[in-house]
């Protein structure tokens, strides 16, 4: 089969060239079509259900809304887990599905179950709705409205009804969240004294406002053969219309709304606000990208739309961006592009030096861009995006992509040099040389592809992160195989038409003349060499416990996010003042461009943040413009010292995308989540505080915070059933006053074109702004009297839950922290040990660890199972090729020897054993096996040609020195740019490059010296199987 492919290419040379040109064209077209992102989207398949229940405390939200929705979701197919948060006025239920479930199918399943859940939720307590179809990377563009002379209410109106509406029409945008400012309402602020004067009840006011704000349709009539539609117009359209609504008649005189209330424009009850650069509040918007869309394309379309919007906004108003992911995407992809370019140049230099022929080096080099272009075609076909990891696969494989071509060209040149026949024999000679190495090339590249099989088996976060890399490498190696067998022989027929003489290569000759005497000495001391190699292996393995472990190094996004947590009793205004006070402290750093504080939460569909939580976005200058600090860690530490000046405030440093992804994966916005499960909130709070104290004493713990589930002051109004029974009242009559007079109620809307604004009824603030006034709130009795609320209810001030969090229908509390100055693995191990020794948990309570640690454990466990199976598969392939257990075992020995350099490189560089480092070891195994195959197969060939064992080893090692060194050098030097890169995303690629480069040093040395020695030893004690 392989020979037929080579022969077909030799017969149809023009067809192969046309095919190559088509691949080039299709590759560039596919490259332009590829979605471009900064990183793979590791977000889970998640459907969120948001339910707003204004005024309800967390306990009622949990019982009346969250629980029915959770029950409805249980039992859905392919569901992984259900998490929920019940807080003041809001329920958020997050339904996680397996990764193979289509998001739209998942939403359909949730929507269907939600219909049954709605029947269990009491009427009027909220209408559940699905969250936007987005992910942790979805907040691609954030902006604020600049408008001198405009109030916050006016700017918010422009945002909601102009900017938001137009931005939602941009392809790839799923939602716009408005944050900050004041949402306009038509407010009826009732005066209970005047209501008592005119003997008007709350029910009468609610009913009359609703009945005086209706449009109706009267169908149509036919007149003179024409239809006339009939409309009854009764909507209110202004404050004056509302003021002039008649409520009752007293003594023949109408009493209007204006007689018992103030009717004004007022702000909706706020649960969040935004401030910026210590200049006060602003109105902002957050653009959410539709899941799966091209980030760069969406942002470009948003920017074009913003230009159009700015041209149409009122004079002085402008949309100003303060964060977008376009810069991050460009920086991340540039990191890999630069590494590819620089690595490619280094590979070409090595090829020129070792091949010693410009034409042969050019042929081999051509397979690099061609293999990459074929990879782009397949990436586009399978719907993959171009990002740090997928393009990183090309950077990692840049050296491997030329291996097949090197073997093919080198063998062709050798045959042409040996054959001095005329030009007519050139093509047959090239064909013979190509057929000779065709099968070994297929075998070698197959091994490289098989080596990366473990990456395809990774699950969840690590699978989404590293499978694009594995796919890209496999696509590129497939291209390398195709072009090595077809295009390379064809190009040789043109480039070497008149034959070629292999000229002496000074570098190769020098290396061979140095190498052979050393090898002779080594073979004569084979026992010492074997023992030395074994001791090196054991010594390196002993270093593993000292390496430290982590999941994936943190990627630098170029922007900081500081999460602030205040006392649960903190009001929105107080939280805003504290955040605003922090802004100038952070602005003192010259490295900072803007500081934006987001207090509380935005609309439904955003984060369910309480008002005592703030997120401060710190937009940074490019790192090359920094002047007072050397790196980001130093900047964060100095900022932490500044914020420590605010006593009693908890905060942790993270990054915008990292924070969102951490929250989606573990439920907390930090690297590590320690979750305590149990039923009693008081016990959870008590034991959670004990765990927090234990964690605080562990070196490396930073930004430690315990989830605030308690500490929210409540005014509890408990209706006295005996008292209301004597008065002939029911509970609902009292509750309506609490809900509407004190809390407020929406009774309709005012329409202004496409705009609509709520009509909101509530007692004037002067009658409800403290506990005594609430006690004395007047309630109508059946006999027409008025009595204070305190006479029919027990009113007390207590401390209740702030929020109730649940995972899989079980209450829990989380303690979150970041880890600094040490590895995640040892930190968690010490934490688990200390908690087990120092914390005694009641029956039914237990602790779990989540976040990056959970991902790391899962990935390492999977690799620990799959990597040995992969090595076994390679062993079987080697056995089937050499038909010798001895030879297969000898080649596999190269794998553990390759580990030596990788471990030493990690140890001396101070890097941790992470998933990227593990991927580096996997790539290293492939090259190590490949070099072993090159040496052993040639030894066997020479012995079959009649050479003695000693001569076969010496001659074979000498002649295979060049391909072994070339393979190692192109693979390692191709990664040098990633090793020294400081660009965005280099943090993830550096451990991988470090392992491969370090491992190739030891692997190559052992391949050239230890493997020939062991071959000699094994053959002397030959046992046939």
End-to-end separation in angstroms reads 29 Å
Helix content: 40-55%
Structural class: alpha+beta
Average of the residue pLDDT scores: 86
CATH architecture verdict of the largest domain: 2-Layer Sandwich
- Determine Rg (CA atoms, Å): 36 Å
Transmembrane segments: 12-31, 339-355, 362-382, 388-409, 441-458, 470-496, 529-548, 859-879, 891-913, 919-940, 961-980, 992-1018
GO cellular component, one term: plasma membrane
Organism: Caldithrix abyssi
Subcellular location: Cell membrane
Outline the structure in words:
It is elongated, with a radius of gyration of 36 Å. 53% of the residues lie in helices and 20% in strands. The mean pLDDT is 86. It has five domains: 186 residues, Multidrug efflux transporter AcrB transmembrane fold (Up-down Bundle); 90 residues, Alpha-Beta Plaits; 173 residues, Multidrug efflux transporter AcrB TolC docking domain, DN and DC subdomains; 173 residues, Up-down Bundle (Multidrug efflux transporter AcrB transmembrane fold); 205 residues, 2-Layer Sandwich (Alpha-Beta Plaits). It is of the alpha+beta class. It has 36 helices and 31 strands. Strands 1, 2, 3, 4, 21, 22, 29, 30 and 31 form a nine-stranded antiparallel sheet that branches. A six-stranded antiparallel sheet has the order 14-13-18-19-17-20. The protein has a four-stranded antiparallel sheet with strand order 6-15-5-16. The longest helix is centred in the last third of the chain and has 35 residues.
């Amino acid at each position: 089969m392989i020979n037929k492919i080579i022969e077909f290419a030799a017969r149809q040379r023009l067809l192969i060239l046309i095919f190559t040109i088509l691949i080039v064209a299709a590759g560039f077209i596919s490259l332009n079509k590829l979605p471009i992102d900064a990183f793979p989207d590791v977000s889970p398949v998640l459907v969120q259900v948001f339910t707003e229940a204004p005024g309800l405390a967390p306990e009622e939200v949990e019982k009346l809304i969250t629980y029915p929705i959770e029950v409805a979701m249980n039992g859905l197919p392919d569901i992984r887990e259900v998490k929920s948060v019940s807080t003041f006025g809001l329920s958020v239920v997050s339904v996680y599905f397996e990764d193979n479930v289509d998001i739209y199918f998942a939403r359909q399943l949730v929507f269907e179950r939600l219909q049954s859940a709605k029947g269990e939720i009491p009427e009027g307590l909220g209408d559940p709705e699905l969250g936007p179809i987005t992910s942790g990377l979805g907040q691609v563009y954030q902006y604020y409205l600049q408008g001198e002379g405009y109030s916050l209410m006016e700017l918010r109106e422009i945002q909601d009804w102009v900017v938001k509406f137009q931005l939602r029409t941009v392809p790839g945008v799923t939602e716009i969240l408005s944050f900050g400012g004041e949402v306009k309402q038509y407010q009826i602020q009732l005066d209970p004294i005047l209501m008592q004067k005119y003997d008007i009840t709350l029910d009468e006011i609610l009913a009359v406002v609703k009945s005086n704000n209706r449009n109706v349709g009267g169908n149509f009539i036919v007149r003179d053969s024409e239809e006339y539609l009939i409309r009854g117009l009764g909507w209110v359209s202004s404050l004056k219309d509302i003021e002039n609504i008649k409520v009752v008649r007293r003594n023949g005189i109408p009493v209007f709304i204006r007689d018992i209330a103030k009717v004004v424009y007022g702000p909706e009850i706020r649960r969040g606000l935004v401030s910026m650069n210590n200049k006060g509040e602003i109105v902002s918007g957050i653009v959410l990208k539709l899941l799966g869309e091209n980030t760069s394309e969406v942002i470009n379309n948003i920017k074009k739309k913003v230009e159009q919007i700015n041209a149409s906004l009122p004079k002085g108003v402008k949309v100003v961006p303060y964060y977008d992911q376009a810069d991050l995407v460009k920086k991340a992809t540039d990191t890999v592009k630069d590494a590819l370019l620089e690595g490619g140049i280094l590979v070409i230099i090595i090829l020129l030096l070792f091949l010693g022929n410009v034409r042969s080096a050019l042929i081999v080099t051509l397979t690099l861009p061609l293999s990459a272009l074929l990879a782009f075609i397949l990436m586009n076909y399978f719907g993959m995006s171009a990002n740090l990891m997928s393009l990183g696969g090309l950077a990692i494989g840049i050296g491997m992509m030329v291996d097949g071509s090197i073997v093919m060209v080198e063998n062709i040149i050798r045959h042409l040099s040996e054959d001095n026949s005329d030009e007519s024999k050139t093509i047959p000679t090239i064909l013979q040389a190509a057929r000779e190495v065709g099968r070994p090339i297929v075998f070698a590249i197959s091994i490289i592809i098989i080596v990366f099989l473990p990456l395809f088996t990774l699950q969840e976060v690590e699978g989404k992160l590293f499978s694009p890399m594995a796919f890209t490498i496999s696509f590129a190696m497939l291209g390398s195989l195709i072009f090595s067998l077809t295009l390379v022989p064809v190009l040789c027929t043109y480039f070497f038409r008149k034959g070629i003489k292999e000229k002496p290569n000074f570098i190769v000759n020098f290396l061979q003349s140095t190498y052979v005497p050393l090898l002779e000495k080594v073979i004569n001391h084979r026992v010492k060499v074997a023992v030395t190699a074994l001791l090196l292996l054991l010594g390196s393995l002993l270093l593993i416990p000292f390496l430290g472990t982590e999941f994936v190094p943190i990627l630098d996004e170029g922007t900081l996010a500081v999460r602030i947590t205040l006392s649960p009793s903190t009001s929105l205004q107080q939280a805003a003042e504290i955040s605003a006070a922090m802004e100038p402290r952070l602005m003192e750093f010259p490295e900072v461009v803007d500081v934006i504080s987001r207090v509380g939460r935005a609309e439904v569909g955003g984060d369910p943040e309480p008002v005592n939580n703030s997120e401060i976005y710190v937009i940074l200058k490019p790192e090359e413009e920094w002047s007072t600090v050397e790196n980001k860690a130093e900047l964060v530490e100095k900022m932490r010292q500044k914020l420590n000046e605010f006593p009693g405030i908890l905060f942790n440093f993270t990054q915008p995308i990292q924070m969102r992804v951490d929250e989606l994966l573990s439920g907390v916005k930090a690297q590590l989540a320690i979750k305590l499960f149990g039923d009693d909130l008081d016990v959870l709070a008590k034991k959670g505080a004990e765990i927090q104290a234990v964690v605080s004493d562990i070196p490396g713990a930073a930004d430690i915070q315990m989830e605030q589930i308690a500490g929210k002051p409540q005014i509890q109004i408990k209706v006295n059933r005996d008292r209301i029974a004597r008065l002939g009242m029911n509970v609902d009559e009292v509750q309506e006053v609490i809900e509407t007079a004190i809390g407020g109620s929406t009774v309709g809307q005012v329409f202004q074109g496409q705009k609509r604004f709520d009509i909101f009824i509530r007692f004037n603030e002067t009658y409800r702004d403290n506990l005594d006034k609430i006690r004395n709130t007047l309630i109508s009795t059946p006999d027409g009297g008025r009595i204070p609320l305190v006479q029919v209810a027990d009113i007390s001030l207590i401390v209740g839950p702030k929020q109730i969090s649940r995972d899989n229908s079980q209450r829990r509390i989380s303690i979150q922290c970041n880890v600094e100055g040490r590895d995640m693995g040892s930190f968690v191990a010490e934490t688990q040990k200390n908690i087990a020794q120092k914390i005694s948990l009641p029956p039914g309570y237990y602790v779990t660890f989540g976040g990056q640690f959970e991902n790391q454990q899962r990935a390492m466990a999977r690799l620990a199972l799959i990597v040995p199976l992969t090595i076994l598969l390679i062993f079987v392939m080697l056995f089937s090729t050499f038909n010798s257990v001895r030879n297969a075992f000898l080649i596999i020995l190269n794998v553990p020897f390759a580990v030596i350099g990788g471990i030493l490189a990690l140890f001396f560089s101070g890097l941790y054993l992470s998933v990227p480092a593990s991927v580096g070891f996997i790539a290293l195994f492939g090259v190590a096996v490949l070099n072993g195959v090159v040496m052993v197969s040639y030894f066997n060939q020479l012995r079959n040609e009649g050479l003695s064992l000693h001569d076969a080893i010496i001659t074979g090692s000498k002649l295979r020195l060049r391909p072994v060194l070339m393979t190692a050098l192109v693979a390692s030097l191709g990664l040098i740019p990633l090793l020294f890169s400081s660009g965005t995303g280099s943090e993830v690629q550096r451990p991988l490059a470090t392992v491969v480069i370090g491992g190739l040093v030891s692997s190559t040395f052992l391949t050239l010296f230890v493997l020939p020695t062991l071959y000699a030893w094994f053959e002397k004690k030959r046992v046939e199987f």
